[in-house]
């Protein structure tokens, strides 16, 4: 079982979080069956697999993971907004059923009511509490002042910048004086400078104990953000979502982006997240005994890869960038150079891996021999290499070509392939997977697709018979 490391709250000078957990998830799993409209008889989609975690008083915990690992689903289960298919969530040792009144959430989208003023939006969070109008007003004004919006009580959301609107979201969450504050990527919709300022101010309130909150859980895709803010970092894996490793946060003095220890920890997390099937114990430095690893969870068997939804132009650009750096480059540095968040960079890396154009090694992206040829090729040869790699390594593209070759007129409707994909993906994801396959197949000139008719057809010259 993964349990929290004893991490001091920064302002407590050595006090530990060894007390009983405020919140605990015990073997929580989540599956979707009928809701995703799959054909009768197919297996439910397992989204989260046997999650175990604890959040203690005084902790700031960050939850990282690739897109599709179930981070936001887990947050909603912990808050009581979703019911786990199995397992249970406990608050102070008591099993929870339904929304936890001791938890407040700040979401990525500001979710403000545009017809209400700042004050009215904040007061709205108190309507369910047994308070007089005067008490509600005092609490709301205090939260607005605490979060730095004093003077904007009568402003409407349309009059505020993105950063100020998110401050209203924080004030609305804090006004209920929650014991647990959950944040679901709260800074990702903001520009870089606004996000940095809001992070700094939030951390200041937390460390000065100016907030009523006793613990914070941050869901993020930003590794720098997690390392800079958190006392403890949980890294999730996908397919299905599970906790791969728990890492202790850095001492406060080492959390600045200029710190060598900060860079080392960010680089380690990049290595972990870009090596989804690697044994965590092999990735961790030998001097990290505080880290706690989850079980090695093999990817669920699938007849088709889960294609990352990226354009070939972006894949080409990444390959050319790495080639220009000598064929090998640190992923952390690539992300910084391209100004890409992890959720944007990882799909590109996955695409290069699926196509066997690059591999990840110790946190670096390394071009394969075919990747080097691809980077050096002219337009026509580049397409030929892509065509060759796509047929060799992308199972759904082989399936489409084989099916088209087997029909007399080499024509098939998209419904034929959607039905195949819906057996293994949900309806929405099956459509997204097919759209990606269409884009890749068109680029490779394996087939044409007539959108108005929804029809696939082989290119006139046909395609080389793919290997089964």
What does this protein look like?
There is one protein chain. The chain folds into 2 domains: 10-293, 3-Layer(aba) Sandwich (Rossmann fold), CATH 3.40.50; 312-458, Arc Repressor Mutant, subunit A. The protein has helices at 71-79, 118-124, 133-146, 162-174, 192-207, 223-229, 260-273, 280-283, 312-324, 331-338, 342-354, 369-376, 379-393, 395-405, 414-422, 427-443, and strands at residues 23-32, 45-55, 60-64, 86-91, 94-95, 103-106, 180-184, 215-219, 232-237, 242-248, 292-293, 328-330, 358-361, 364-367, 411-413, 447-450, 455-458. It has a 7-stranded mixed β-sheet with strand order 6-7-8-3-9-10-11, sandwiched between helices. A 4-stranded antiparallel β-sheet has the order 2-1-4-5, covered by helices on one side. The chain has a 3-stranded antiparallel β-sheet with strand order 12-14-13. It is of the alpha+beta class and 468 residues long.
In short:
This protein is α+β, with helices and mostly antiparallel strands.
- Low-pLDDT segments: 1-18, 34-38, 462-468
CATH architecture of the largest domain: 3-Layer(aba) Sandwich
Secondary-structure-based class equals: alpha+beta
Task: Estimate the global geometry from the Cα principal axes.
Answer: globular
Average per-residue pLDDT, rounded, comes to: 84
What profile does the largest beta sheet have?
7 strands, mixed
Q: Considering the protein shown, what is the CATH homologous superfamily of the largest domain?
A: P-loop containing nucleotide triphosphate hydrolases
- CATH topology label of the largest domain: Rossmann fold
Continuous helix count: 16
Q: What is the end-to-end distance?
A: 42 Å
Number of folding domains? Answer: 2
Query: Helix amount, in percent?
Result: 25-40%
Strand order, sheet with most strands: 6-7-8-3-9-10-11
- Rg over alpha carbons: 25 Å
Give the strand tally: 17
């Amino acid at each position: 079982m993964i349990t929290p490391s004893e991490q001091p709250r920064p302002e407590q000078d050595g006090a530990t979080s060894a007390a009983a957990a405020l919140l605990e998830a015990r073997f929580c799993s989540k599956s979707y069956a009928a809701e995703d409209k799959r054909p009768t008889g197919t297996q439910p989609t397992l989204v989260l697999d046997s999650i175990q975690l604890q959040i203690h008083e005084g902790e700031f915990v960050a939850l990282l993971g690739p897109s599709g690992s179930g981070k936001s689903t887990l947050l909603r289960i912990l808050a009581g907004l979703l019911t786990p298919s199995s397992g249970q969530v406990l608050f102070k040792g008591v099993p929870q059923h339904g929304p936890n009144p001791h938890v407040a959430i700040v979401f990525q989208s500001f979710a403000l009511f545009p017809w209400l003023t700042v004050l009215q939006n904040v007061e709205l969070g108190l309507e369910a509490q047994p308070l007089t109008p005067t008490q509600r007003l005092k609490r709301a004004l205090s939260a607005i002042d605490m979060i730095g919006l004093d003077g904007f009580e009568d402003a409407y959301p349309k009059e505020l910048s993105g950063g100020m609107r998110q401050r209203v979201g924080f004030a609305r969450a804090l006004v209920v004086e929650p014991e647990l504050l959950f944040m679901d990527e709260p800074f990702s919709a903001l520009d870089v400078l606004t996000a940095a300022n809001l992070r700094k101010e939030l951390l200041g309130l937390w460390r000065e104990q100016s907030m009523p909150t006793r613990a914070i859980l941050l869901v993020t895709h930003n590794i720098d953000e997690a390392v800079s803010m958190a006392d403890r970092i949980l890294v999730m894996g996908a397919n299905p979502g599970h906790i791969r490793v728990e890492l202790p946060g850095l001492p406060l003095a080492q959390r600045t982006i200029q710190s060598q220890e900060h860079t080392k920890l960010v680089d380690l997390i990049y290595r972990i997240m870009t090596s989804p099937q690697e044994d965590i114990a092999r990735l961790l430095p030998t001097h990290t005994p505080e880290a706690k690893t989850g079980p090695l969870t093999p990817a669920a068997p699938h007849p088709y890869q889960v294609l990352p939804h990226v354009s070939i132009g972006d894949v080409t650009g990444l390959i050319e960038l790495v080639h220009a750096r000598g064929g090998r480059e640190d992923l952390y540095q690539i992300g910084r150079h391209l100004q890409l968040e992890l959720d944007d960079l990882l799909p590109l890396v996955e695409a290069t891996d699926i196509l066997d154009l690059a591999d990840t090694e110790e946190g670096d992206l390394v071009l394969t021999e075919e990747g080097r040829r691809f980077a050096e090729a002219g337009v026509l040869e580049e397409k030929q290499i892509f065509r060759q790699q796509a047929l060799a390594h992308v199972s759904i593209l082989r399936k489409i070509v084989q099916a088209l070759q087997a029909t007399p007129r080499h024509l098939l409707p998209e419904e034929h392939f959607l039905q195949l994909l819906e057996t293994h993906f949900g309806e929405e994801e099956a459509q997204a997977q097919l759209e990606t396959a269409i884009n890749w197949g068109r680029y490779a000139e394996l087939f044409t697709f007539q959108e108005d008719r929804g029809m696939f057809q082989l290119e006139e010259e046909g395609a080389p018979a793919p290997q089964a």
